[in-house]
From TrEMBL:
This is RagB/SusD family nutrient uptake outer membrane protein. Belongs to the SusD family. Residues 93-221 form the SusD-like N-terminal domain. Residues 406-510 form the RagB/SusD domain. InterPro entries: SusD-like_N (IPR033985), SusD_RagB_dom (IPR012944), TPR-like_helical_dom_sf (IPR011990). Keywords: Cell outer membrane, Membrane, Signal.
């Protein structure tokens, strides 16, 4: 179903794709006007293309990095200087990032780009499209995409400036987080009547009514974090709209892993809104790549997965997060991990690497360090420093030997794509899934909301667990056990930072992190944005460079 990209082709669209990192506006830089382009239904769709291309651009990069390696879900240590990259990744683990961190800057630029391009497309289509249902739906879809981007900014930075008019290049101060919350809520509610009530091929990759309801549910569940006021009953009501639609269902145990395969797409029953990826879709000015295998598959396992490239394998998980998967051997979700001794695809032939004794262990002290040494690859759960002075621990460099490269279990939920001729993968990435609807409703009830539709927290959780494990269903559920279930269900799907903050766990200690400053729940406003927009004020805790 990757053909979706043909509808969003940018080759015909002669619209300048320049964007502002703080004004959130995109000027038209050619002579194209509505009396020339767009003039028909095909061209109207093409006009929306830059918004969707931009959204997939950094979804699996800036969004993934910022939401996952800032938690106990994933860690990106340097190994012999590899992947040190100005300490950008390491800082996310230690929570000592600054306004100059490249990941935090990319996240701001990317969401700003989506917002600016949405403003541009809305302006063009408001003038070009004839009045009617098609126009109302198209504009509402674009406003929903803009709302998603503002939700991401609000969640990550707190107070951010609101720009909704194309051509507004003023330097605006930040709106409060509560004001941004209310803006997103209003936009989604106004869009819902015009959004499609259909789910499947015809709407795949674009928001429908239930995308808006699901995002509202997500906002309401986190409302106390965002605004200081709980909205649990509103969360339940939004979840119920998705449930009552009858369009979605929990994938069975036999198809859970397939949701994340390179062959996934609109046939997946849980996908409410997913980001489509296609290695053949090349768009100038956008990243648009999904590189999970490059980061997660050990270099030694290239042959096992038949990859056309050698993966870099810098990304691991931490024992604290993997502990959520250790108590149920019957859970299909355990199979998303690479752990322990490694074998080829036949499951029998050991994966071996031939090096030297010194190449295997840089701290080997024998006189025969150059002697040939062959070993079976075994991934260790623990990630440890070996021989580094205490003052260098903050560098987070494990060393450049085989022991270091095999530290940490790896996640292959987004299964390596052997069909791609590049590092880019075909796997579409879900943003909102039906299992999240059920778990959000269960949590909202546990937090004091009123149960509806005959649902209880335990019935909702067991609806998912009955499709994930053959173990006995649960007889009770608490907020803690529900949190652990969310860890299992949404590993590597960019929701863990959001969850940790809501459950009060983001300030905890894991791995080598000891920071407990609650102000780090928000990222700093990037230096580049502050320079471009003098009206912006830095977030608390960062003004002095902390």
């Amino acid at each position: 179903m990757k053909k979706i990209f043909k509808y969003f082709s940018l080759s015909i669209l002669g619209i300048g794709l320049l964007w502002s990192c703080d004004n959130l506006d995109v000027p038209i830089t050619t002579q194209l006007t509505p009396d020339v382009f767009p003039q028909n239904s095909t061209q109207y769709i093409q006009t929306t293309g830059p918004v969707y291309a931009a959204f997939r651009g950094e979804y699996s990069f800036a969004w993934w990095w910022s939401q996952s390696i800032s938690t106990d879900e994933a860690v990106m240590p340097a190994r012999g200087g590899n992947w040190f990259d100005g300490r950008n990744y390491i800082a996310m683990h230690f929570h000592d990032w600054t306004a100059d961190n490249g990941i935090i800057g990319s996240l701001w630029d990317w969401t700003s780009k989506v917002i600016g391009l949405s403003n541009q497309a809305i302006s063009i289509l408001n003038k070009a499209m004839p009045e009617g249902a098609d126009k109302n739906t198209t504009i509402s879809e674009l406003k929903t995409m803009r709302a998603i981007a503002y939700f991401m900014m609000m969640d990550s930075y707190g107070d951010v400036p609101l720009y909704t008019e194309y051509g507004d290049f003023s330097s605006r101060p930040k709106s409060t987080r509560k004001e941004v919350f209310e803006f997103v809520e209003k936009e989604l509610k106004e869009a819902i009547p015009n959004l499609s009530a259909v789910s499947g091929v015809s709407t795949y990759g674009r928001p429908n009514k239930y995308t808006a309801y699901a995002l509202l549910a997500k906002m309401y569940l986190n409302a106390e974090v965002y605004t200081g006021t709980q909205r649990n009953n509103d969360c339940i009501a939004a979840c119920d709209e998705v449930i009552k639609s009858g369009l979605y269902a929990i994938e069975g145990r036999s198809t859970y892993l397939q949701m994340f395969y390179p062959t996934n797409g609109p046939q997946m029953k849980e996908f409410i809104f997913a980001v489509p990826y296609d290695p053949s879709a090349s768009t100038v000015g956008f990243n648009g790549n999904m590189y999970h295998a490059r980061y997660d598959v050990p270099r030694s396992l290239r042959a096992r997965f038949g990859l056309p490239f050698t993966p870099s394998a810098p990304r691991s998980t931490l024992p604290e997060f993997y502990a959520n998967f250790e108590n149920d051997v019957n859970d299909i979700r355990n199979k998303q991990w690479l752990t322990g001794k490694q074998y080829l695809a036949d499951g029998v032939t050991p994966v071996t690497v031939t090096t030297t004794k010194k190449g295997y262990d840089a701290y080997y002290t024998g006189s025969d360090g150059g002697a040939t040494y062959t070993y079976q690859v075994e991934l260790s759960k623990q990630i440890t420093y070996r021989g580094l002075p205490a003052n260098l621990v903050g560098l987070f460099d494990l060393g450049d030997d085989e022991i270091a490269w095999n530290m940490g279990y790896r996640n292959i939920k987004f299964y390596p794509d052997a069909t791609s001729t590049s590092r880019n993968q075909n796997n579409d990435v879900p943003f909102l899934r039906y299992s999240d609807i059920l778990l959000m409703k269960a949590e909202a009830i546990l937090r004091g909301g009123t149960a509806t539709l005959g649902d209880t927290p335990i019935s909702l959780v067991n609806t998912i667990r009955n499709n994930r494990t053959t173990s006995t269903p649960w007889t009770s559920v608490t907020l803690q056990t529900l949190y652990e279930e969310r860890c299992r269900e949404f590993a590597h799907e960019t929701w863990h930072r959001n969850d940790m903050i809501r459950f009060g766990k983001f300030e905890g200690a894991w791995g080598f992190k000891t920071d407990s400053n609650v102000k780090h729940r928000l990222f700093p406003i990037p230096t580049g944005a502050l320079t471009l927009n003098p009206a912006l004020v830095q977030n608390p805790n960062y003004a002095t460079g902390n």
